[in-house]
Amino acid sequence: MTWLIWRQHRTEVCVLGLLVGMFGIALLVLGTQAHDLFPGGPARCAGEAGVNEDCAASFRRLDEEYGYVENLLAGFYLVPVVIGAFLGAPLLARELEDGTWQLAWTQAVPRMRWLAAKLAALAGVTVMLTGMFTAVLTWFRQPFDAWEGRFQYDAFDVEGLVPVAYALFAFGVATAAGAILRRSLPAFGVAFGAFLAARMSVALLARPAYATPLTTMEPVPVGGSMDQAGHRPVPSFADWMIEHGYADATGRRLSWTEYYELEAAANRAGTNLNQFLHARGIQQFEIYHPADRFWTFQLIEAALFVAVAAVLIGVVVWRVRRRIL
Amino acid sequence: MTASEFALRTDGVGKRYRKGWALRDCTLALPAGGVIALVGPNGAGKTTLLRLVVGLLAPSTGTVEVLGHDVTASTPQTLSRVGFLAQDHPLYKRFTVAEMLRFGRACNLRFDQGLAERRLAKLGIPLDRRAGTLSGGQQAQVALALALAKRPDLLVLDEPVASLDPLARHEFLQVLMGAVAEGGVTVLFSSHVVHELERVCDHLVVLNHGRVTLTGDIDTLLAEHRLLVGPRTATDLDRAGAVVEAVHSDRHTTLLVRDGAIPAAPGWQAQPVALEDLVLAYLRRPSEPSAAVTSGVAA
């Protein structure tokens, strides 16, 4: 079976391996240069951007010299999907397209063993390639993460565990779609579409609700966003801001219209806005997820996508076992 | 007969797809040894029946027993006893012929690589060519060599020669019959062409509209059926229920009867019937559940 699987899927594995290898080497080279901008390592500068002179200078150069790479990388959340769908789509669809399922399943290897070997091997390659790619990308983004936090879409979606889960999801969708549609290319398309739809709704609707966000509520400071003691405002840059705004003295949230009315009143009165708001007991509130929830959220989202992938693979196994093909 | 002397036994087998029933109430008992032809028009359910026999599909109703084992169990042992050549003889198009043989060796218990290589060498099919670049006849030969190298006890072929030109068809049947002559293997193949069956087959199954309409040993079937030709008559002649088909021309009436060797009535002439005419007569009959006629196996 090992030889057969390799012989049948070596083209996809080699193409994907080459792609991952090329991007990986490019990122390693660029990443080494970007890391060199931070003599003590980028982690030391996390949160110090506005305070430490050296770190501020490093971040400025990072943005100037490698900012374009970071923008390009935002599109790389699709790489795991390409890997998973490219390996999953032909698994059954190509056999069904060419009629060779009748050849494969009438040899002495029972079809469930055939399917288990194929699923294990190709899902394994999916995990391996995505894992390698994500490891390099996560390392590459360390300086950027120190600056921007890891909860932005261009960080959270390409780092840690979720890319591997995305890849397995795409693998599951592509395999199941291939079994049902009996064609590789449409199965690949379905996997791509399903991932875009799932990831968009998860990122926008489900992800903020993985845990109850924290809320801070404090009076508008007289002197600006940073108070005299110089400690950082909570939440910090690395936290994930869900919503922020103003509330009155009783804690009732003000709509933005109400806020603009206050702003206009302050202008008419000719006083400093912050002092005007402070005098009226207006408070600032912020709803956010703290930065240390990163791995919890990664685990939850990864589990979500892996669970869907498992269900889809279950459907494939059920269909093959019941001989509904 | 004991169970293992039957190559194939089906009991009340039906297969329903989303569109409807492809096969219904199929009860067969086919003896091991010899060549069995499964005949029927396109869409009669031949492919469905053969896929059920090799375990590619599971029946919606009934049971299928091949060489004494339930096929849905599909263990390596039962799988290795049955060879299958699907319609259009699918191969992995990008594999070389040698890689196809390696596939056969990797996926089978008693694969005889030497046998396959000798067969292909005799036919002049090079091992280093990609399967997809071979001619249709050569692809069929590679698929057959692969199936025979499994050393199956039952070889099932779905329309093996339908897509081949006359020369390739002849060569294919020659190789197939050679393998049968070497012994041991029971062959079950489907065809929508009735022509030439008599020469190659021992046993016949006629399938029409998803039902078995006739099954039996060919010699027995031919001995049981006769053509009776007499003056044209419109009266009901089927008093004994033995008339399979009545054809009226301007002056004559021709009856196909299944009455053993009862002497013909005065004024009527009895003639033997050709296998092709016999099959066509059964295929022309309207389908009805009780139309299945069995013969030969019980004898």
Automatic annotation (TrEMBL), chain A:
<feature type="transmembrane region" description="Helical">
    <location>
        <begin position="160"/>
        <end position="181"/>
    </location>
</feature>
<feature type="transmembrane region" description="Helical">
    <location>
        <begin position="295"/>
        <end position="318"/>
    </location>
</feature>
<feature type="transmembrane region" description="Helical">
    <location>
        <begin position="188"/>
        <end position="210"/>
    </location>
</feature>
<dbReference type="Pfam" id="PF12679">
    <property type="entry name" value="ABC2_membrane_2"/>
</dbReference>
<keyword id="KW-0472">Membrane</keyword>
<keyword id="KW-1133">Transmembrane helix</keyword>
<protein>
    <submittedName>
        <fullName>ABC-2 family transporter protein</fullName>
    </submittedName>
</protein>
<dbReference type="GO" id="GO:0005886">
    <property type="term" value="C:plasma membrane"/>
</dbReference>
<dbReference type="GO" id="GO:0140359">
    <property type="term" value="F:ABC-type transporter activity"/>
</dbReference>
<feature type="transmembrane region" description="Helical">
    <location>
        <begin position="72"/>
        <end position="93"/>
    </location>
</feature>
<feature type="transmembrane region" description="Helical">
    <location>
        <begin position="12"/>
        <end position="30"/>
    </location>
</feature>
<keyword id="KW-0812">Transmembrane</keyword>
<feature type="transmembrane region" description="Helical">
    <location>
        <begin position="114"/>
        <end position="140"/>
    </location>
</feature>
Automatic annotation (TrEMBL), chain B:
<keyword id="KW-0547">Nucleotide-binding</keyword>
<protein>
    <submittedName>
        <fullName>ABC-2 type transport system ATP-binding protein</fullName>
    </submittedName>
</protein>
<comment type="similarity">
    <text>Belongs to the ABC transporter superfamily.</text>
</comment>
<keyword id="KW-0813">Transport</keyword>
<dbReference type="InterPro" id="IPR003439">
    <property type="entry name" value="ABC_transporter-like_ATP-bd"/>
</dbReference>
<feature type="domain" description="ABC transporter">
    <location>
        <begin position="8"/>
        <end position="234"/>
    </location>
</feature>
<dbReference type="InterPro" id="IPR027417">
    <property type="entry name" value="P-loop_NTPase"/>
</dbReference>
<dbReference type="Pfam" id="PF00005">
    <property type="entry name" value="ABC_tran"/>
</dbReference>
<dbReference type="GO" id="GO:0016887">
    <property type="term" value="F:ATP hydrolysis activity"/>
</dbReference>
<keyword id="KW-0067">ATP-binding</keyword>
<dbReference type="GO" id="GO:0005524">
    <property type="term" value="F:ATP binding"/>
</dbReference>
<dbReference type="InterPro" id="IPR003593">
    <property type="entry name" value="AAA+_ATPase"/>
</dbReference>
